[in-house]
Amino acid sequence: MSDRDHPGEEHAHEDDRPLSGPALRAKALESLLVEKGLVDPKALDELIDTYETKVGPRNGARIVARAWVDPEYRRRLLEDATAAIAEFGFVGRQGEDMVVLEDTPKVRNLVVCTLCSCYPWPVLGLPPVWYKSAPYRARAVIDPRGVLKELGEEPPEDIEVRVWDSTAELRYLVLPERPAGTEGWSEEQLAEIVTRDSMIGVMQVKIPERGER
Amino acid sequence: MNGIHDMGGMHGLGPVEIEKGEPVFHSDWEARVLALQLACNSLGKWNIDMARYARERIPPAEYLAATYYEKWLRGLEMLLVEQGLVTEKELEAGRAGSKAVGAVALRVSEVAPYLRNRRHARLDDDVPPKFEPGDRVLTHNNHSFGHTRLPRYARGRRGVIDRDHGVFIFADTHAMTRDKKPQHCYSVRFTARELWGSGASARDSVYLDLWDDHLDATPD
Q1: How many domains does chain A have?
Q2: What is the rounded CA–CA span in Å between residue B175 and residue B188?
Q3: Roughly how many angstroms between the first and final C-alpha of chain A, as a whole number?
Q4: Could you give the ipTM of this predicted complex?
Q5: What is the CATH number of domain B28-116?
Q6: Which of A140, B36, B66, B213 has the highest count of CB atoms within 10 angstroms of its CB?
């Protein structure tokens, strides 16, 4: 949060260095649009605050944890993800039509957007840089096992890997497998260990080592 | 269009690197660009498919060199000029020649409802589906200059309808002429071998969301 704590303040001079490149162009465009009456800087602050502090992968983690402890919720989630996710109030832009993909001991799911950066904002927030990067967009479809191996978790040969390229307005959330050793955990405890990357499908959920969190 | 944005299957772009503890924005201007894009979307002068098509028209070398929000900034400038909200001259000068007419800025109090509202990519139109789950289909091999959500790597390929998502706006025409052309959108399953050849895993598959206009029935 270092340089992003003061959304209402003058943005251009926060770190006392002259702006250059895109920062300068963004500033110039904002000034122009404000002068034209097309944007209200206060609304921009509010938009930024929403995605910086209110919407993020903790939302998705709550969905996953609920599905792990409540079989009836899990059934609803897999049948009509949009409605089941809306039960938590997670709705809107880039999550209008949701699909949840269930990992099993035999199937791993992986989500990508090869053409741009489609991502389920209401449950995961804004996408991380790696998800939007050329290497991931290029490789997830042609070499998903290679990508998973590089990230540390190559699936065994007898596991089926399904890659979901988000080419329309459906948005995908992976329901990862609940790790062994979490029997008896509360929903809140479980939500704590569900990571963003597990809900995109590039990592599995693990119980963190002591001191790792 | 056969643009650089259509990256699925390209080689040589390097490893996937996950940044630990990544912030939502890496600098202040990135946040401003995201907010500018969303605030300008709310003016209603373009749709999301037109916004994607703008970014796809960034020249390939520039596209590859740009960071994510640099691409958004470039795309937004293109849309503002093309839709007549800002002139090239104003953009160069950084000064408004005149106030905008016929567009009202998003206000603070409207942000939350705006973000929660559905954009209605899904339509209520009563259009019969051309296919049902289990049907075998062949994707079109169409290389148009316009916007399409059928990537190169899946053109002219055989797949199976996995599920019918219902009736949606057809992005390909919506980006070019604003024609919603309501039709069914399906999840279509392709085996990894159909897409990538015999070297690919026999177990794996890739699912794409495609519309009726991308698909033909295959003769068995």
Answers
A1: 2
A2: 22
A3: 18
A4: 0.97
A5: 1.10.472.20
A6: A140
